[in-house]
Amino acid sequence: MAERVFIFDTTLRDGEQSPGAALNVHEKVEIAHALEELGVDIIEAGFPVSSPGDFQAVQRIAREIRGCIICGLTRANPRDIEVAAEALRDAAHPRIHTGLGVSDIHIRHKLQITREEALEWGVEAVKYARRFVEDVQYYAEDAGRADPEYLYRVLEAVIDAGATVVNIPDTTGYTTPDEFGALIRGIFENVRNIHRAIVSVHCHNDLGLATANTLAGIRNGARQAEVTINGIGERAGNCSLEEVVMALRTRQDLFGLETGINTRRIYPVSRLVSQLTGIPVQPNKAIVGVNAFAHSSGIHQDGVLKERSTYEIINPRDVGVPDSEIVLSARSGRHGLRHRLTELGYTLDDEQFEKVYNRFLVIADRKKTVDTRDLEAIIADEVQMFFEETYHLEHVQVTCGDHSIPTATVRIRGPEGQVYCDAAHGTGPVDAIYRAINRIVGEPNELIEFSIQAVTGGIDAVGRVTIRIQAKEPVVENGVERHIFSGWGSDTDIVVASAKAYMFALNRLIAARREAEARKKQMAESVASPRLRLPEKRLSPWA
Asked: What is the pTM for the complete model shown?
């Protein structure tokens, strides 16, 4: 049996730090369930002390996910660790992830302490975390730019203090594979007690080397890989789960290692994360991009038709890429649709299924046949809305052309069931629609991003529109000021899809503002727990 590499997914913590990718609690829980089905070993659910929303998300995930280790991030101080322990209290397998910077850049300029003080703080943090959980992971931030001898000392000390996992991050994506591999090899050769802990690697993609560095670390002894779905994350992103997992599987001859990932769930989870974060997957993205298994060259097409392995080293079905030959029509009926959705891994209750079925009939009447990617777009529109819809778009109509003024008329149902109808002119049909909607809804915002993608091929393709809007007044959501909200919509008519996407984003903004006001009122009425009060400022949190 091959040796195991543990997959530590930080989509909900580091991945969510992508600009504009903030998720609400319900969306985080939905992704956590998908990660559990995917087979990840550890879910880093959030940074509990950072906000009430993050605390609630970690708490709910800890209660609902029983098949994974649930991890909460902390800084190396008592309050962070106490709050994380409280959030993880109901977890079947809790882990606290704490640590400090180890590079002189971080120690001198960020922490503004000495090397010895940083080492002491780290040891105390691990000891304190061990009071609450048996599984403690220590991150040596910016290890890629640290003095190796100092890094060895820190790792040896925190392992002696009780750390079960030591995380070696290339925080800025600075190192090359040769350098990072040598760093991991040096740890195994120079840290006396390294056999008592799992070595983890956490690589960023600033130079496009995150996956290469992670694999170099694994080849040199690391047995935990820290990754995100689609490689999302701060700046240029994190190491991509799908790339590491499929590299280990495809090059079994080189690595001789395995993971517990159900690779057939990779593509569906990739699409879920893309939809909920509003971050599209680039077409040429490895493993999960729409072009990953497409062949336009005649030579390539000829080779694949004769023998798939001539130009494909991965079978698309192995990562869950849907078979585009399977199509449905309006005559397929409820049973046929439900069966296909089950095959694709979707479990819907009766109410959700009826929404999907009714939308399916509309699309099927227009397109005649509906394939898997069309179904994914329908699911995203009808089911994956984890907030209350305040305004519902009932009708949209536009007139436009090169010798006419673009005009849009919209009919919208309001929160009390009242129906509003209004019209507006614009520079184009989409601008006119958005102006008409704004006249009714009255939520000040600015459209900052607009993109259209064809879900499938053909002139009758379903079009998917993804947008981002920026609120004029920020919303404090999950304890963080949030300005940007994403939305999506799909339809065979891209103008209608554009209207749906805008309504989605507006409803998301309004729901967040309403929830923030309710939380503010609740906090004003409640008495803060004295256990969570900030300690008086002092040089060391452990003094």
From this structure: 0.82
